[in-house]
Amino acid sequence: MASLFQRIDVRGVQTRVTLPADLTAGVSVSPSSASQTTIPQWLTLLFSQPRIYVSDSQIMLQPSQGEAVAVQLQSAQLENTSEQHQLSVGMQLVAAGQQANTLRFVLESNDLVQSPAVDFYVQANELSIDLLNTVRRLLPGVGGLNEVDVDQLDAGISLWGHWENGAVSRLRTRLDINSLKLEQPPPFGRLYGGSGVF
Predict the structure, then answer these.
(1) What is the three-class DSSP state of 21?
(2) How many whole angstroms from its chain centre is CA 27?
(3) What is the Cα–Cα distance from 11 to 78, expressed in whole angstroms?
(4) N vs C: which end of the chain shows fewer Cβ within 10 Å?
């Protein structure tokens, strides 16, 4: 598809998206030859434009339960060539009563339209309890997020990976922890009324 514009600048977009009760339903966690991903026509049109830049915009994500989470796009840039597509996003997640959390991610693909496959990078320099609670609010059905009570967290995290055929096929993580404190469960003796000596 031929390019319609040399550059598209978008500012001040405000929109709201209602999330399904379980975002993870039907999502594979390993590659499957039977799982194929098709690209909508409107995305094909976007991928044919040389450069699209979005700034000063906000997306409200409304979970099935609880208050909405604001995604404040500081900058989002999509660059397309005949050989590569790259999306770079700097944003903040803001939930009611919590501090804003800054995230950055980059998506790259060599041939996204014909053979959907994406290399991705996600960075959160300030991994905090507020960010963890915000992710829990958006992804209530993800196992492991609600199984550990964190009392104190000061860390940074980076993720590198590859997504293809509807699944993550490669994932590498770097976690820099300054401080971490988990809430201790009550002693067994308190739970069962015993002495706590086994």
Answers:
(1) coil
(2) 14
(3) 14
(4) C
User: 113: Cβ–Cβ under 8 A, 6 or more apart, which residues?
Assistant: 39, 44, 47
Residues 46 and 78: beta-carbon distance below 8 Å: yes
d(CA 102, CA 123): 9
- pLDDT tens sequence across 113-131: 666 788 999 998 887 888 8
CB–CB of 54/13 below 8 Å? Answer: yes
Q: Could you tell me the mean pLDDT of each successive run of 10 residues in the chain, 198 residues long?
A: 71 86 50 49 74 90 84 90 88 83 90 75 85 76 62 87 86 88 60 42
Q: How many CB atoms lie within 10 A of CB 137?
A: 21
Beta carbons of 107 and 86 less than 8 angstroms apart: yes
